[in-house]
Specification:
Distance between the termini: 26 Å
Structural class: mainly beta
Oligomer: single chain
Shape: elongated
Number of domains: 1
Largest sheet: 20 strands, parallel
Length: 493
């Protein structure tokens, strides 16, 4: 941008100097592209504090030629909304690298975005990516994002995306309403041991699919011992009219990017609405604490919490109802599952080694009383006729995966007492170690395993379970197609 053009753009801004740092107030005109150009000019000054005041029109995201984005490239910029400051429309309205077609690395380290309202945008409202700096501290706080385009939001409205190469980040106290996909997401981060990511105190309302997704590494590139990811005290509400039922409330890793997560603390979150699974830990992940979360207002048609990694603690969580009838709810529904699954064939990128055994996980002190689960029961043909609260299972026994060396679910500790639905029995009734590849787990209160009758016949003879598993896989395929379509919808046509 030439000096003459920059000077003309800055002429309409109030500019003062405070302790050697630029402080700018940009007043919205509710006119496109004037508002985009004015904001763009203000954020080009390193170290600037930019206040937004009024209504900013970033253009119609349904018309690629009539919408814009402000690219945040200068270091140390704070972009802050005055009361009522609103950015309407736009395509990736605030981004650290031009989207689409942009390439990094971006240079907007130490960026703060706070107290801004977004309405009816396309793509991600805040897209922080490609910043490569170990001394980077990012703050995205106090913003309000409202999807006013649902259900005809193509490109879709996604929320806040953090994807960077080093540093620390706070995503706190934001309110996101009606996001069609990924209200808050973090993907393929570089977190050094002294780095962290904190997602805290956010309110996600009327979410339509996978509102909170965090993943830090591609297993094909190794298994890093990175800094902590803390997800705590967030409130997540799922929309009643989501077009795809396979919603994960909090997803720790994903199958559609083929990435995983380690060293996470997921605590004090509240999830409400209908979900497939409330909290999901994908394979390759480990050393996570899933503690004191409230899912009592969430109805799950698979299970409330799924653990597919190792060395994870699942403790003190309050679980909600579990559906055991319907298209997907019978008979693969339960409260908490430790599952040996190999998703590699689903991943869009190579993931390296097969997953390790599901091992050294601890379940203790979770509250199953609201699940409505009567306890595990089988009939004479080894068909499951009633679902229970805890399931330890390998997909190999279901015929969902072929055998691989890490197929076992073994060496886990289950200490669940007294918080099962009234009158349904204790661990001997409510905890199932499904043979053959789930074995040698420590289950307190179950001194004599009752599961051997299931092994009397091949587990694959359980046609009801196998059919349900096939229906579930087909449903996940539909979800994957939905997400791919949404991702393509964020590309210029």
């Amino acid at each position: 941008m030439g000096k003459g053009k920059l000077g003309a753009l800055l002429a309409g801004l109030a500019l003062t100097a405070t302790l050697g740092m630029a402080q700018v107030t940009v007043v919205g005109t509710n006119t496109y592209p004037t508002d985009v150009n004015n904001v763009q000019a203000a954020v080009m000054v390193p170290g600037a504090t930019v206040f937004l005041k009024g209504i900013f029109n970033f253009g119609d995201p349904d018309d690629p030629g009539a919408c814009g984005q402000a690219v945040l490239s200068a270091p140390g910029v704070t972009l802050r909304g005055c009361p009522g400051a609103t950015i309407r429309g736009g395509y990736f309205p605030l981004t650290t690298v031009a989207v689409p077609g942009g390439t990094g690395p971006a240079t907007a380290k130490n960026l703060t975005i706070r107290d801004i309202r977004f309405e009816g945008w396309g793509g991600y409202a805040i897209y922080h990516t490609e910043v490569q700096a170990e001394d980077n501290v990012t703050r995205i706080e106090g913003n309000t994002l409202v999807n006013t385009r649902w259900p005809a939001d193509d490109p879709p409205c996604l929320g806040i995306h953090y994807c960077t190469g080093g540093g620390k980040a706070f995503i706190r106290k934001n309110r996101i309403i009606g996001a069609s996909l990924f209200a808050i997401s973090a993907h393929d981060l570089t977190l050094h041991k002294d780095d962290w990511l904190i997602i805290e105190g956010n309110r996600i309302e009327d979410a339509h699919l996978d509102p909170l997704v965090v993943e830090t590494f591609n297993p094909a590139e190794g298994d890093p011992d990175h800094g902590p990811v803390i997800i705590r005290n967030n409130r997540i509400g799922i929309s009643a009219d989501t077009p795809n039922p396979f919603v994960w409330g909090i997803s720790l890793g994903t199958f559609y990017f083929g990435c995983a997560l380690n060293n996470a603390q997921v605590e004090g979150n509240v999830i409400t609405g209908r979900v497939c699974d409330g909290i999901v830990m994908f394979p390759y992940g480990h050393d996570m604490k899933i503690v004191n979360n409230d899912l009592s207002g969430a109805t799950a048609f698979e299970c409330q919490i799924v653990g597919e990694g190792r060395r994870n603690l699942i403790s003190g969580n309050r679980l909600g109802p579990v559906e055991t009838t319907g298209e997907y709810g019978n008979p693969i529904s339960w409260g908490i599952g430790l599952l040996g699954l190999d998703w590699s064939e689903w991943y869009p990128q190579g993931v390296g080694p097969d997953p390790d055994p599901v091992s050294k996980n601890v379940l203790i002190g979770n509250d199953f009383r609201r699940t409505g689960l009567a306890g595990w029961a089988v009939d004479g043909a080894c068909q499951i006729t009633s679902m229970g609260c805890v399931l330890l299972l390998s997909a190999v026994d279901m015929g969902w995966n072929e055998y691989w060396p890490g197929a076992e679910v073994t060496g886990n500790l289950i200490m669940e007492f007294g918080k099962f639905p009234a009158g349904t029995g204790g661990p001997a009734k409510q905890v199932l170690e499904y043979p053959i590849y789930a074995h040698d787990n420590w289950i307190f209160g179950q001194p004599i395993p009752w599961a051997p009758p299931l092994a009397a016949a091949s587990p694959r003879s359980s046609l009801t379970v196998k059919t349900a598993g096939q229906a579930y896989a087909e449903g996940l395929a539909k979800k994957r197609a939905f997400i791919e379509k949404a991702k393509k919808g964020t590309e210029r046509k």
